[in-house]
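[Target chain]
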Amino acid sequence: MKTDQLAEMAKSHGICDPGLQRILSSKDEESLLEYYIEGIDFCLENDFPSKDYLKANGADLLARYGVFIDEAVQLTNQSICVLLGACRASIELTEYSVSRMYIKHKSEAVITLTGNSFAIIDIFDGSKLNIDASGNSKAVVNVYGDAVAAIRFKENAQVREIRKNKVTY
């Protein structure tokens, strides 16, 4: 990823000065991907960088940072998960695992929570989420735009769906 090219694209999306400096001072793709996760709200709100740009320029590292684009994935106890494009994901959280998930574009995810697991999940655009929670698991699902969540829970599990009534953050 070229920092100067990314910086110009970020400026066109209205990035703040500290964010711009962080991009410009990044030494490698790994530090840029770390910043992508840290600044995920700006990135998802602005589709920045585009999923195509990420795929073309960071493909070898994306999965290591929990970013998946147009893939079918099966994950267990993934702490960070970003599904972009048309992903199809089966995600299981067990025991005391904690996860932060972002599901965007046309991605679909089936998430199973058991034990004492906990997840915060933001879903956007036309994405679809099926969540099945049991045991003492807990989840918060923030629904933006036309995203759809189907939620089932039993035993002592708790799932809270919050409809944001807006397209993004």
About this structure: The first strand starts at residue 67 and ends at 69. Helices lie at 3-12, 17-25, 29-38, 40-46, 51-58. The first helix runs from residue 3 to 12.
